[in-house]
Amino acid sequence: MINNIKTVFSIKDLENLSGIKAHTIRIWEKRYNVLEPMRTDTNIRLYNLTSLQKLLNITLLHEYGYKISKIATFPEEKIPQLVREIISMKNSQNYAINSFKMSMMNFDQEIFFNTFDWLISEKSFQEVFKEHFLPLLKELGLLWQSQTISPANEHFMTHLIKQKILIHTEGLQILKPTKTDKVFVLSLPMNEIHQIGLLYLQYEILLQGYKTIYLGESMPIENLEDLTKYFKKITFVSFMTVQPDRSIVNQYVKKMEQKLLLKTNEIWLLGKMVEYIDRKNVSERTFIFDSMEETIYKI
After folding, report:
1. Phi and psi dihedrals of 179, rounded to 5?
2. In the chain, what is the straight-line distance between the N-terminal and C-terminal CA atoms, in Å?
3. pTM above the 0.85 mark?
């Protein structure tokens, strides 16, 4: 069942988590003995968390030029030692993402915090989010769809990432806005619960010196309309990951425009569902973005 927490993995799970094809894993296993799977009565390979950690370490060494034939000759303790030497160079994106994955699979907050602290000691929060959290979040979606991870794994990791966004956002919220020509109001459509993209966008907007009003998930358009009584110029930002449904997304956008595009207001829309918006029929003050980067550039 999808809700079961995994501690035992199939070879397909290892492929999904490491990026190494199952066929290659079998060859490494048979020819070089790098992994020792358990076997079911019907001879199906199964792997534990230790095997997953070892494979992720081997993958990193392989990416850094170590041949699998050479790795196979190393004593067991040398592999993590070499990995530590590589990460001490502070430039291994894949190591950080793999560490976050192991944190998720083990429900281990300490691994997450240690990895984040290591990254933030060398990089800005913007860099950590774009280079590590964004690719990780994209992978989580695919891992969840393929049932490699459970919703519990995904929720554990996304909650920790949200915490980091909120901590860094709070430091900016206490500062007085330096740009007062408009206010950004951030919300999600009804039944939309995916907040991370919107939370991070708020951080970027605050970084540019604007005032933000974060209203969060499942916000009716009528409630957004109330804000027009308080502010002269508003940019309404909405992230559409799974809602509104593609069958009604154009009606939804039209309603937003009718209710919110008063005076000089704007609407900014992004997320997976924007691909179903008929862009020829939107107002010139409705902006549709295909990526987070594009949106940030517009701020």
Report:
1. -120, 120
2. 43
3. no
